[in-house]
Amino acid sequence: MKFNTKTIHGNQEHDKAYGSVMPPIYQTTTYAQSTPGAHKGYGYSRSANPTRTALENSLASIENGTHGLAFGSGMAAIDAVVKLLKSGDEVIATSDLYGGTYRLFTKIFEDFGIKFHFIEMDNASKLEAYINVQTKLIWIETPTNPMMNIIDIKAVATIAKKHNILLAVDNTFATPYLQQPLDLGADIVMHSATKYLGGHSDVVLGALIVKDKDLAQKLYFIQNASGAVCGPQDSFLVLRGIKTLHVRMQRHCENGKAVAEYLRNHPKIENVYWPGFEDHPNHIIAKEQMKDYGGMVSFVAKGNSYANAIRIVENLKLFTLAESLGGVESLAGHPASMTHASIPKEEREKTGVVDALIRLSVGIEDIDDLIADLEQAIG
Ligand code: P1T
Question: What total of structural domains would you count in the chain?
Answer without folding.
Answer: 2
